[in-house]
Amino acid sequence: MSLDQLFVDAKWALIRKLPEGLIPWASMLITIGVIGALAPLIMMYLTWIERKVIARMQNRFGPTRVGIYGLMQPLADGLKMLIKEDIVPRGADPLLHRLAPVLAVVPAILLFAVIPFGRNMAAVDLNVGLLYFLAVGSVGSYAIFMGGWASRSKFSVLGAMRSVAQLISYEVPSVLSVVGVMMVVGSLSLVDIVEAQAKGWFVFTPWGFVACLIFFLSGIAEVNRTPFDMPEAESELVAGFHTEYSGMKFALWYMGEFLEAFAVCALTVTLFLGGWQGPLIASWLLVFILAIVFATAKLLHPVIRALGVLLMGGLAIRFGSEPIPSWVWFLIKTYALVFVLVWLRGTFPRLRIDQLMGFAWKFLLPLALVNILAVGFWVLLPFPTGAILSVVLLVMSVGCLIRLNHPVALEPRTYILAD
Amino acid sequence: MLMIIGSGVLKGLGVTLKTFLETYPWGRAMLRVLGIAKTDGLVTIQYPDEKQEHSERFRYFPFLVYDGTPDNLRCVACRICEQECPPQCIHIVVAKDEQGRPLKANGRTLPKQFDIDISICMSCRICVDVCPFDAIEMDNQYELSGYDRAGEMYFTKEKLLKSADYFKSIKPTEAAVVDQRLAAKKKKETPG
């Protein structure tokens, strides 16, 4: 048993004894069960991470009252949401109003089916995985429009309209930036894409760097995160499309949003940051860092701290010589991107709607198109020539785009009569 | 031009990252190693657990001062504070006997009722300034929550009475000035 294949081995150990015909079904059931259980957990702790990180960036503590380090806060929030009154506005479409938040969560969970969380750890290795991800991911915009329209509220409809405009705009550069990966790998399967990055992550190639930025930025815009959160701009539209939602339906909206944000981070990692590939570092280093974290966690009970350090010591003895497992690499990278997401939210104010649209259509889209040409140079020409050509092309086009997008400097107006 | 646009974005990200790191001990250590100037980090005071140090002159609601025992009030029920109070939250009834003449204790008239509706009081300290007998002073208690505005936030004489020693303990400087003034007054009265 190795640390790398821990979960895969555990799954097979569970279902090995079953009759022949049942094994595929049991395997599916376990995978679905694990994703179904982990998705709400991931969402709950994403809210915790977001609140903590944002608070720290604003010199605050964030949640501290419920549980140690506020770790039980998501549960308290969930409980609060569950016991709140469930309101459907008078005159709203009750069926669509109730259906929309569910429709927002379901595709977000479905996205997890194709993401390879580690070596042999994709739930389904679809040969059109990337296409599946892009197609299912864009279903969320239907849910948002449905929810906004069914609420019978002006704020909701305005938010929903903005959402549709924004999502359609940003889907274009996002898909075009992925084309480069398809050209290089020659496959749409996410597992193949990760395996193609064994030699070097795509983000370290000129076209990959640009595509990664385009994909991640349009990803943020597609999941309505600040600074691109036009659909729910709270200072303009109360809460945008979910103005009329309360209780658990409101929580479902948030769940859909956070899960999609997590999925976008995971897909960026898969496509450009090498997925579960990572440098061969011995596990004891990771375990050592975790032991230090346990030992220095001041708020924990000393017994728990000692047990944690002992557990880490045991892990170091048992698995220390193996390289850090693939799923740990994947989670480290994904959560690093989640941190970047929160970091961006903590730093930048919301864009104006025209700036937002302009950024998609006038900057990201042409750059994504040029990037495809750069990938062509990279793939078809021999190494130094292709690389130099693509770098030159990208730098020049970025410069041109910025110059072209630069607002015209108006001359100061003179008032003849006033002077 | 590329550099200019990118640098603005990165600078903003740098500011938030630095603030983030400053709030953790390991982050502060990292900043120290890198030689980046840092501030104290977290400035939030976790209120119910730890309390802010108030200045001596911090004031909230007024209280009535007595010397020694609670029946030895400084207040003579002259009702100046009642009339001067801008939100009119003070209510005074002079103690009188059956014939309607004011009762006296320790040679002074005294209030039968002295109520302050602290849900109306705006902590302006005018009552303290106008009181010729230094009988009313500002308290520094601020944890005065209650379930009922009319009942619990309506302070009667019994609730408002606090000793001169208490006043001395919360505001020593101000109490010294008041004591000096009272002593001077007493000296003037005695020879006359």
Walkthrough of the structure:
The complex is a heterodimer of chains A (419) and B (192). Chain A is mainly alpha-helical. Chain A folds into two domains: 6-281 and 323-405, no CATH class; 284-319, no CATH class. Chain A contains 16 helices and no strands. Chain A has helices at residues 6-15, 23-57, 73-82, 94-110, 129-137, 140-150, 154-185, 190-196, 206-222, 234-237, 247-272, 283-296, 302-319, 326-347, 353-380, 383-405. In chain A, helix 7 packs antiparallel against helix 9 (206-222) and helix 11 (247-272) packs across helix 14 (326-347). Chain A is globular and about 90 Å long. Chain A starts with 5 loop residues before the first helix and ends in a 14-residue tail after the last helix. The mean pLDDT of chain A is 84. Chain B has 192 residues and is an alpha+beta fold. Chain B folds into two domains: 2-34, no CATH class; 62-185, 2-Layer Sandwich (Alpha-Beta Plaits). Chain B has helices spanning 2-22, 25-34, 80-84, 126-130, 149-152, 157-160, 164-170, 172-189, and strands at residues 62-66, 90-94, 104-105, 108-109, 111-117, 136-138, 154-155, 161-163. Chain B has a three-stranded mixed beta sheet with strand order 6-1-8. Chain B has a three-stranded antiparallel beta sheet with strand order 2-5-7. In chain B, strands 3-4 form a two-stranded antiparallel ribbon. The model of chain B has no long low-confidence stretch (mean pLDDT 84). Chains A and B meet through helix 2, helix 14 and helix 16 of A and helix 1 of B.
